[in-house]
């Protein structure tokens, strides 16, 4: 094992040839159901979904966690390599990665992040993980001998880091495509030794990196590294595939809540109970929160703007002061009887990318009784929670745009 690792290091990516990048790139494995993935992969034999969701190439009755699914994934990966669709760079490199979603642009770095610094919490977490999901990622990595799903990281704002990565975007990209959802993905190779050394130094000088998305992937990487350590195997397992963006460039959407019933309350009594904790103002249109401490409430075909009473917000606690926590402590728990967001089947979550119209649809259909529109959790709040060594409530953040799978994989050899 190499000593005193830096936060990140370059690596020789397994990636599509430039002319095949659009055919290979796919949505992240965990944002599509198997049925959705089957549809998306029709007529696309090179789609990375055949690796990340290999059950689509097996009979529908096969369990998604069956050994043959992982074996099929490895078989499909070997075929893409054998057919020359995927190639591997000859030496360790970094890669600049730009995402464009409408008017929003963010440019980050594809790198191998240190498992050692993850284990000591210098690469900081903010969510609990589920053992079954960790196990799935461990089996995937071990069967493929590669990490194919990147962990999304944020780094503290740094003009120098942004300048170094942006300088690579003046060249010819090695991947340039617009996905089915309209998101533009562009990747550039950074193979200049001096630039690589500067990037490593600048990132390593940062006090911490922050996991934005990918807690199960990073936890799985730690487990794989621990299992391989001391067995004379290559050191590449001591790092994990990551894409790192400046915190100020990243975009978090609201993550809204819908509840099936009013827990025995009438509409009138529920509004009265809410009014004891919030200022309640009827709205002529959709009530999108504009600041922290505001919520939109959709009930009985009416929108209301809620403003939590300030004295009810525990500002000293980085977790309890979050809007998602305040809503749970003041309304979801005491009024609607929802104590466990992870297991209670009466609540569901709607990513803000779907818009407030989706909340109206869920309630007006009769499927749900009430909806709450949230103000987006801020990245500074996420970082404060992670710095305190705490965890955020479930479904606190929804990052957009999403990374693509398949544009770079980390082979563990």
Count of folded domains: 2
What percentage of residues falls in helices of 4 or more residues? 25-40%
Q: End-to-end span in angstroms?
A: 13 Å
Major sheet size, sense and barrel closure: 9 strands, mixed
Find the count of extended strands (DSSP E, 2+ residues).
Answer: 21
Mean pLDDT figure:
96
Radius of gyration: 23 Å
Number of helices: 13
Overall 3D shape: globular
Uncertain regions: pLDDT < 50 for 5+ in a row?
none
The proportion of strand residues reads 15-25%
Structural class: alpha+beta
Q: Which assembly state applies to the chains in this document?
A: single chain
Structural notes for this entry:
The protein is an alpha+beta fold and 413 residues long. It has 2 domains: 8-251 and 400-411, no CATH class; 255-375, Conserved hypothetical protein from pyrococcus furiosus pfu- 392566-001, domain 2 (2-Layer Sandwich), CATH 3.30.1760. Helix content is 30%, strand content 24%. The protein has helices at residues 21-24, 34-40, 49-52, 67-82, 115-119, 131-144, 159-167, 193-204, 215-228, 267-275, 323-332, 356-364, 379-387, and strands at 8-9, 14-16, 86-88, 94-101, 104-114, 123-124, 146-147, 151-155, 175-178, 184-190, 209-213, 239-246, 252-253, 255-259, 278-283, 294-299, 302-308, 347-351, 370-374, 398-399, 410-411. Helix 7 (159-167) packs antiparallel against helix 8. The longest helix is centred in the first third of the chain and has 16 residues, at 67-82. The two termini are 13 Å apart. The model has no long low-confidence stretch (mean pLDDT 96).
């Amino acid at each position: 094992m190499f000593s005193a690792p830096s936060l990140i290091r370059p690596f020789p990516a397994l990636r599509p040839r430039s002319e095949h990048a659009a055919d290979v790139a796919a949505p992240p494995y965990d944002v599509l159901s198997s049925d959705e993935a089957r549809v998306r992969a029709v007529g696309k034999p090179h789609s990375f979904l055949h690796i990340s969701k290999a059950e689509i190439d097996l009979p529908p009755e096969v369990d998604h966690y069956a050994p043959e699914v992982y074996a099929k994934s490895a078989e499909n990966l070997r075929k893409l390599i054998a057919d020359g669709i995927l190639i591997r760079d000859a030496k360790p490199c970094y890669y600049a990665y730009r995402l464009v979603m409408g008017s929003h642009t963010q440019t980050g770095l594809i790198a191998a992040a240190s498992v050692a610094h993850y284990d000591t919490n210098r690469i900081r977490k903010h969510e609990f993980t589920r053992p079954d999901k960790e196990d799935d990622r461990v089996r995937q990595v071990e069967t493929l001998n590669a990490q194919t799903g990147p962990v999304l990281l944020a780094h503290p704002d740094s003009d120098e880091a942004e300048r170094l990565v942006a300088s690579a975007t003046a060249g010819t990209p090695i991947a340039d495509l617009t996905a089915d959802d309209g998101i533009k993905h562009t990747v550039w190779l950074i193979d200049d030794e001096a630039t690589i050394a500067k990037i490593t130094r600048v990132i390593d000088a940062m006090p911490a990196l922050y996991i934005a998305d990918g807690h199960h992937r990073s936890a799985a990487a730690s487990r794989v590294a621990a299992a391989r350590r001391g067995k004379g195997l290559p050191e590449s397992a001591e790092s994990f595939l990551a894409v790192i963006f400046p915190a100020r460039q990243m975009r978090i959407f609201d993550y809204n809540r819908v509840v099936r019933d009013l827990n025995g309350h009438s509409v009138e009594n529920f509004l009265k109970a809410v009014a004891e904790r919030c200022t309640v103002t009827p709205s002529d249109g959709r009530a999108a929160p504009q600041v922290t401490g505001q919520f939109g409430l959709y009930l009985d075909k009416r929108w209301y703007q809620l403003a939590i009473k300030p004295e009810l917000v525990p500002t000293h606690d980085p977790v309890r002061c979050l809007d998602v926590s305040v809503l749970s402590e003041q309304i979801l728990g005491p009024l609607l009887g929802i104590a466990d967001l992870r297991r209670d089947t009466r609540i569901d979550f709607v990513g803000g990318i779907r818009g407030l119209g989706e909340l109206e649809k869920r309630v007006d259909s009769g499927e749900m009784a009430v909806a709450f529109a949230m103000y987006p959790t801020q990245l500074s709040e996420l970082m404060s929670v992670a710095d305190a060594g705490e965890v955020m409530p479930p479904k606190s953040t929804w990052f957009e745009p999403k990374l693509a799978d398949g544009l770079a994989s980390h082979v563990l050899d």
